[in-house]
Amino acid sequence: MEQAQLIVVRHGETEWNLEGRRQGHLDSPLTAKGIAQSEALAQRLANYSFSSLYSSDLGRAYQTAKLISDTTGHTILVDQRLRERNLGIFQGLKGDEIHKAYPEELLLHKTGGPDYIIPQGESARQQAQRNISCLEEFALKHTGEIIVIVTHGGLLNALFRHILSIPLEAPRRFEFMNASINIFSCGKGNWMLQTWGEISHLQPGETLGESDFYV
């Protein structure tokens, strides 16, 4: 196999997911549902013969990866480049709180395009470049292997757009679920999408979509 196969999964549901708080580089623990989602995901991933398990260092991803590791026996390899977008001053706030506290910055966030840098945070393009360069490094390192990567909605958004040549400024018309399986292959810099949003391992009612802020 001349390609690497990357199984990219999003963390389980968190307390702040339920509250609608913007997490970014902040964190909140998995809910009971999020733990159940992650355990079901772990059982599903045990069916794959993968060589390495990578995770974002943020707690919600690492907690999900730990539940996978407990099932499969893989050591967790942590990489900060797999983090969600740094949402700066918006982090920890709900939508109405952001609108009240930072109306001008929120307007710029919505209209400024992918190069707008949230104060104390980063732009969508900066986040995408950080994520994609990391994944391409992994793909080159693991040519001929299958690896699992536990990460966030923002990375999935960036990778999906990168592979399908969807501009970062284009409206998002796709979803990424908690604990979903998304499979990509990459060889010699050429990416292919194989599976998107696979959640057959989850029970009805255990799915949760994503907001525009990838909370």
Written account of the structure:
The protein is of the alpha/beta class and 215 residues long. The chain has one domain: Rossmann fold (3-Layer(aba) Sandwich), CATH 3.40.50. It is built from seven helices and six strands, in the order βααβαβαααβαββ. Strands 3-2-4-1-5-6 form a six-stranded mixed beta sheet, with helices on both faces. Strand 2, helix 3 and strand 3 form a beta-alpha-beta unit. The chain is globular and about 50 Å long. The N and C termini lie far apart (36 Å).
**CATH homologous superfamily label:** Phosphoglycerate mutase-like
* CATH class bucket: Alpha Beta
Strand content: 15-25%
Q: Which fold name is given in CATH as the topology? A: Rossmann fold
Q: Which ranges are low-confidence, i.e. pLDDT below 50, for 5 or more consecutive residues?
A: 211-215
Count the helices. How many? 7
Termini Cα gap? 36 Å
Can you name the CATH architecture?
3-Layer(aba) Sandwich
Q: Based on DSSP secondary structure assignment, what is the total number of beta strands? A: 6
Name the helicity range: 25-40%
Rounded Rg:
17 Å
Taking all residues together, what is the mean pLDDT?
Answer: 94
Largest sheet features: 6 strands, mixed
Question: Helix/strand-derived class?
Answer: alpha/beta
Order of strands, widest sheet: 3-2-4-1-5-6
Order of helices and strands: EHHEHEHHHEHEE
